[in-house]
Amino acid sequence: MEKQQIKQIVIENASKEVESILNSARAEAKSIIGKAHAELEEIKRQEYSKFKYWEQLERSRQIGKARQIEKDLILKSKHKVISDVIKRFEEEYVEILKSPEKYREIMKTLLLEAYKEVEGGDIVIYTSKKDRKLMEELMNETGIKAKLKTRDEDFEGVIIEDQSRGFYIYNTIKDRLERAKDILLEEFSKIFLGE
User: Fold this and answer.
1) Reported confidence tier of residue 111, pLDDT bands at 50, 70, 90
2) If DSSP codes are grouped into helix, strand and coil, which group holds residue 110?
3) What is the enclosing helix (H) or strand (E) of 65?
4) Contact assessment for residue 29 and residue 77, using Cβ atoms and an 8 Å cutoff
C-alpha cells in the first residue's frame, strides 16, 4: 500500500467523524457568537445613559473585549475539533492493537511496505521481542529472506536496515500515527483556520 493510499484511507476514515464534530462545533460556535453579540448589545445599552465622554470610552473598551472574547471562543472551538478528531483517531488505533487479526494484517502491511523500499542487499529486519514469533511467521508467509533481530524497546511495526547501503526505514504504528497527525493538523488548519 502506497503512502498516498494510506493518507487517503486515514483521511476518509476520519471524514465522517470530522463532519459530526464539525457540525457540533459550528453549532457551539454560533451559540457562543450569539451570546457574545448579546452581551455586547447589553453593554452598549447600559453605557448609553452615562456621561457622553465616559460612555464612549467604556463602550470602546467593552466592544474590543467582546470582539476578543468572540475571536478566542471561535479559535478554541476550531482547535477542539482538531484535537477531538486526533483523539478519536488514536483511540481507533488502540482498538486495532487489541484485535490479533487486525494487528497481524497491519504488521504484514508494515513489513511489506518497508521491504519494498530496500529489496536486495544485506537486509536486517528489527522487531520487538513480543512480535518476534509473528514476524517470523509473516516473513515465511511472504517469502521475505532477511536476518531478523529483536530490539529491547517495545514498538509495533518494523525497522529495516539496509547494511550494504547504510540506511534504516522506520515503519512503525507510532511513526505512522505521528505522520497521520501531522497530515491531519495541516489539512484541518488549511480548512478551518485558513492557515
Assistant:
1) very high
2) helix
3) helix 52-98
4) yes
